[in-house]
Amino acid sequence: MEVNNGDGVGNSNMSRKVIDEEKSTVVIPETAHQISSDSWFQVGFVLTTGINSAYVLGYSGTIMVPLGWIPGVIGLIIATAISLYANSLVAKLHEFGGRRHIRYRDLAGFIYGRKAYSITWALQYVNLFMINTGYIILAGSALKAFYVLFSDDQVMKLPYFIAISGFVCALFGISIPHLSALRLWLGVSTVLSLIYIVVAFVLSVKDGIEAPSRDYNIPGTTTSKIFTTIGASANLVFAFNTGMLPEIQATIKEPVVSNMMKALYFQFTAGVLPMYAVTFIGYWAYGSSTSTYLLSSVNGPVWVKGLANISAFLQTVIALHIFASPMYEYLDTKFGVKGSPLAIRNLSFRIGVRGGYLTINTLVAALLPFLGDFMSLTGAISTFPLTFILANHMYLKAKHNKLTSLQKLWHWLNVCFFGLMSIAALVSALRLIAVDSKTYSVFADI
């Protein structure tokens, strides 16, 4: 059985096998993408780009408004801690069993067998597809917000901006062959993130100081409050987790576990502070009337808001590429794409396949542009299972003989609790989508 040594670009013609308990096999191809080439610092910025993507501009409305001050603040802090813990469990299993597991499904297949390999793969790609769809909605919303600052002709609708966003995301995806190739773009992403976070923060402080007393009561009927609270809980875990940690860890240099732990600590310390700041200040400034896209609420010079909106749009294009990378890796590996990224065959492949994948994302985004609902549904059906349920149970199974009875009980409590949360969040998200579907038609301009 071959062990991937992590040097450079994998060979898609070579493969290893994982044997499950029923002696059936799962063939795991070596990756066509570059691995083991990035510093922990670069990987830390990959993780931080996800946390501080333009989604952060919606957390005041999608987390704080449904939860209120005390539950919202406590919820964010707890979500930070448990997300770091769960991600650490997965990171420590990266070299489990004498080999590197560079894909989430590879790790699950090695521990459980063929069925878990397939289920994990399905959950992960549902998760990533919906995140990508949400990013395109977000990019379209930012582009529309930029447009309406300078024009009130109402000719351009949200679906048009979503289509433009999908096209730009496809161009970027075609240009960047793999995750490690982002490099300089991670610095660009950080600058763009700081622009819209600082603008949102400063203008919110100004509005908050000048505004009269705000209403911080949780809006809605008793029934709607219950469902929105559950949905906000799903948004909490969505905010901190990628659902593709092994794929990100695959890019890091040896020693992969200790370096990944450094990257995670960087993400959950320095990385979360800007997100906390803009989330809390947005809710403080506007209370229960906070928009689900904060830059739509703030008052300030048109050019400043325009700069922030266009920065949010551009940063979203970069962030989407991170969450689309596992799909790109699968397709490139399956079809044996190797050699120079600029080779005619490889470039044509990326244009056709990546462009086609993002076209589907864009169509779904334009059909159902309900950003908050996508966050809730994604958290329910895939982020909870992948990040918390599976992470705890995999660690429990892999380290069974090394854990005390108390440690085993702790992991089982996590599995059961997050299993119930996942079911509750799914019901809540489906209800939200049903309600919004009655309010908005397909291809809605919201």
UniProtKB/TrEMBL annotation:
GO terms for molecular function: amino acid transmembrane transporter activity; symporter activity. It is found in: Endomembrane system. One of its GO terms (biological process) is auxin-activated signaling pathway. The chain crosses the membrane at residues 39-58, 65-86, 125-146, 158-176, 182-205, 263-286, 306-331, 351-368, 374-391, 412-434. One of its GO terms (cellular component) is plasma membrane. Residues 38-430 form the Amino acid transporter transmembrane domain. Its main location: membrane. It is a multi-pass membrane protein. It comes from the Eukaryota. Coiled coil: none annotated. Keywords: Amino-acid transport, Auxin signaling pathway, Membrane, Symport, Transmembrane, Transmembrane helix, Transport. InterPro entries: AA_transpt_TM (IPR013057). Carrier protein involved in proton-driven auxin influx. Mediates the formation of auxin gradient from developing leaves (site of auxin biosynthesis) to tips by contributing to the loading of auxin in vascular tissues and facilitating acropetal (base to tip) auxin transport within inner tissues of the root apex, and basipetal (tip to base) auxin transport within outer tissues of the root apex. May be involved in lateral roots and nodules formation. PANTHER family: OS05G0424000 PROTEIN-RELATED. Belongs to the amino acid/polyamine transporter 2 family. Amino acid/auxin permease (AAAP) (TC 2.A.18.1) subfamily. This is Amino acid transporter transmembrane domain-containing protein.
